[in-house]
Amino acid sequence: MTVSDWQRVIDEFAAIGGRDVQFIGGEPTLYPHLARLIGHAHGAGLGIEVFSNMTVIRDPLWEAFKSYGVKLATSYYSDDATEHDKVTNLRGAHKMTRANIRKAVELGIPIRGGVVAVSTQQRVREAVTDLQEIGVDHVGGDRTRAFGRASKGATPSVNDLCGHCALGQVAIGPDGAVWPCVLGRFITLGNVRTTPLTEVWNSPRTIDARAEIAAAHGLKPAQSCTPPQFLPSCGPCGPCVPSVAHCDPREADSQLATATIGAPA
Description:
alpha/beta, TIM Barrel, 2 domains, five-stranded parallel sheet, three-stranded antiparallel sheet, about 35% helix, about 15% strand, Aldolase_TIM, rSAM_sf, metal-binding
């Protein structure tokens, strides 16, 4: 996708009633034209969130974040640097991420954190406390889902999605592929390099994918919700707020889920 391709798709998304765009990756802050796309999305009247590991953010991006009212989101794994760095497989990641979270708070840039539980011994409660003490108002969490690196070679399944994919959102990859959500990259709905987004959104393939995902979740959309670390809110089930409740019905009653989400007393 070229810069002009992304700008065209942003305009198409706004034209069909889209309200918010999230730049995610990979790591979006490494993309050299991110600030330009942020400005374009702002001009199209869209709300903007950047989901980043918050390790390296250069001054021009900080300026774009402030100028265009960008919101930030990041994953956080532990208050312990060694544990966090082990999960991210990047030495020094905890120090850089924590420093940039603090900088965002100091600059008044809205930021939310998601604590993803990858092991039963992980310091998830301490991670939540650490983020809140830094000044992060919205702290959510999730279990590890079998997609990408976390799949460990397992075949992805619609059963591990939230159940609302391709209903209120889609994801678009760097090659133009359209997916039902950022986790549903194993389901291709079309490609915006060859087909307008409106046509992909209303295509038989997208309609079939929605039906397949809904059927896998028992046609009970109120019992499923979007994983909070990927989207700003759990819109499909209004009462579900990432900072105070769990957004995964399969794990809602588990001790690990409670530890991941629960704010400290």
